[in-house]
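Good morning C.,

I know you're traveling, so I'll keep this short. The sequence:
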Amino acid sequence: MGLYSAASRKLQDRFDTRRLADGDRAFIEARDMFFIATTDDEGQPQCSYKGGEPGFVRVLDDTTIAFPIYDGNGMYLTAGNLVATRNVGLLFIDFEGRKRMRLNGVASVDDADPLLPEYPEAQLVVRVHATEVFPNCPRYIHEYKLVKRSRFVPKVECETPVPQWKQSDWAHDVLPENDPANDPSREVIPRG
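The tokens, ready to paste straight into the viewer:
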């Protein structure tokens, strides 16, 4: 990603470590979740979890990744911070393989990004220009096994269910007019 200068690449080739360095791309694209840290225009931090199917984060070139913003709780804390300050830190973790990687960069958010149609039900696409990519010490990663991916992750082949909280008295009347929760034919489930 943006971590490797021409001099770094020359040394990687000399000592045959380029494959190791390029493993970053495969690692990122294999993840089905990551944590993202942002700050607002007053410097206040936010941290959020983002999940999807493996490959929902795409490595577009040596310095750019992209991922979707899906329907959430309507607060847009992460997306709003990315628009306001653009600086971002991402933490990718493979809990089963006990590996993690950090990516810092500068983000842009676009509701007309050409990748948008490739992400079913995405509202926005975030592109991050990586300024740093580095492995993070794995020794304290607890080993977890994936039991089941969330049914709420949008997929082309099926309609995404509605989370039950959107049917609650406190939420139902304030949802956007086009929210899927307003469609009585949609399946409603407590959790995925």
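Safe travels,
E.
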